[in-house]
Amino acid sequence: MAYDTILVETSGKVGVITLNRPKALNALSSGLIRDLGAALDAFEANPDVRVIVLTGSEKAFAAGADIKEMAGKSYMDAYLEDFITLGWERVTKCRKPVIAAVAGFALGGGCELAMMCDMIIAADNAKFGQPEINLGTMPGAGGTQRLTRFVGKSKAMDMCLTGRMMDADEAWKCGLVSRIVPLDDLRDEVMKIAETIADKSLPIAMMVKEAVNTAYETTLAQGIHYERRVFHATFATDDQKEGMTAFIEKRQPSFTDR
Ligand code: CO8
């Protein structure tokens, strides 16, 4: 399928979605969000794709929601169309692992979109921020909620109230991103991480993802209980038998996703 605002490719077991509105620094227009949702649907349905990578350009992952598109909206427009609900959170519904590869600006909705992914790998030129307050508005796609869970109250307040940007180093130190790599190596390094995950048992990777995400949705006691139940369930899989047998036999496992 051809898209106007994104590029889509597969590389082995990895599906790559590249946000592609270079003239607008990948501003997240409604068309882009529609395209992104359709591409995610297609990758989720494609059994050959086991991990999804979401990325942008060297200059911008995404510089936020499209300000030109939303500037004239009235309260009633926003309320009646439930602005941002439709499509935006599609990435959070993905069952396959999704990695955000962020170079350049990840601002406003761009930062929020990256935080919806399962992990963020940043190029050394990445810049993150929630600058909505500078536009007389505020984060609307999880910025006040996910950023606070990632970096804690004080820094989330700092970012959302001042609208300043943080660089990759600060983002790594405060746990927003899992790794920083040189810009020129971003694609290769992210593909290596994606391929490493793609070689695991997909159902087990999906269970791990669900369990980690549960930590954000529930109490510690409930999360531990959920984890224990899913851990028990892994013993019903062929891949658990294969993984442990392969270890004992000192060979690489050959998972079958069963
Ligand atoms: N929306 C629309 N167009 C944009 C956006 C954007 N978010 N960001 C940049 N552009 C456009 C510029 O208007 C410019 O277009 P043109 O050439 O036609 O004038 C082009 O991209 C290049 O931008 P600049 O010339 O400004 O590039 P610089 O390198 O000088 O600056 C910056 C880069 C610092 C990233 C700057 O462009 C900037 O500050 N952009 C806006 C960042 C921002 O405020 N983002 C938050 C947007 S609000 C938001 O995301 C709310 C999310 C709420 C939930 C989601 C709702 C949908």
TrEMBL record:
Matching Pfam families: ECH_1 (PF00378)
MF terms in GO: 3-hydroxyacyl-CoA dehydratase activity
Signal sequence residues: none
Gene3D superfamilies: 2-enoyl-CoA Hydratase, Chain A, domain 1 (3.90.226.10), Lyase 2-enoyl-coa Hydratase, Chain A, domain 2 (1.10.12.10)
Catalytic reaction list: a 4-saturated-(3S)-3-hydroxyacyl-CoA = a (3E)-enoyl-CoA + H2O; a (3S)-3-hydroxyacyl-CoA = a (2E)-enoyl-CoA + H2O
Function (record text): Could possibly oxidize fatty acids using specific components.
PANTHER family: ENOYL-COA HYDRATASE, MITOCHONDRIAL, ENOYL-COA HYDRATASE-RELATED
Name under which the protein is recorded: enoyl-CoA hydratase
